[in-house]
Amino acid sequence: MNGKVTVTGMVIASMNLSESDRRVTILTKERGKISAFARGARRPTSMLMGCSQIFSFGEFVLYESRDGSFNVESADIRTSFAGVHDDLDKIYYGMYFCEFALALTRENVNAKTELNLLYAALRALEKGMMDRRLIRIVFELRFLTENGEMPETYRCMKCGKELIDEEHVLFNAKEGGFICMNCSGGMSGVPASRSTVYSMQFIVSTPLDRLFSFNVADNVLKELEAVRRAHTGTYAGYHFKTEEMLDIFSEQ
Ligand SMILES: [Zn+2]
To answer: Does 127 map to a domain?
Structure first.
């Protein structure tokens, strides 16, 4: 397969190669992540300058060579999330989301869901209505859910009892979800209140167009953050470079 391909996607990584060239990784709807050369993209007069920057979203025309490498020929950029680029804190969050997507997506597989989720998370960052720490929690837990690592949020992992009436439960990432108080004796895990369980149900099941549309009380945010850390730590298995930057911001 070689020749021209048109894909819809977002630049999730961009690296300078030389005085004039860049290498980009685009998360595409049709074919997962694709690495491509953007030749001349560092020259101010280049058509490719804008489209080779991180967060650039639109239609990319790529040329696939016989050896399987790609070159960006042109791009029709629909948004580059200017409202994220304006704020250093937002940039780090956005870069972290891109790094997360880079680590957990593959090549040559449809990545429509992951791309839509990334797009929605960046839009939420841009809008600024939702706590950024919560945007991150929702993005990560939903990303892992779509990747086949959905935590069980409706029933106790041990006895199967519905959690709806439980005042307090425990989240155990290795078990894959919540444990009721009756079954939790001697187990380690993250203590969680009913509001946290409810928020988790919302995160794993709400349609994407309404997913980034809520805020929670501080105590719930703390519990959700601990659940996120446990779940991502167990199922993502990466050390994210940009995470350290977020930790610095979160302490402020
Ligand atoms: Zn139980």
So the answer is: no
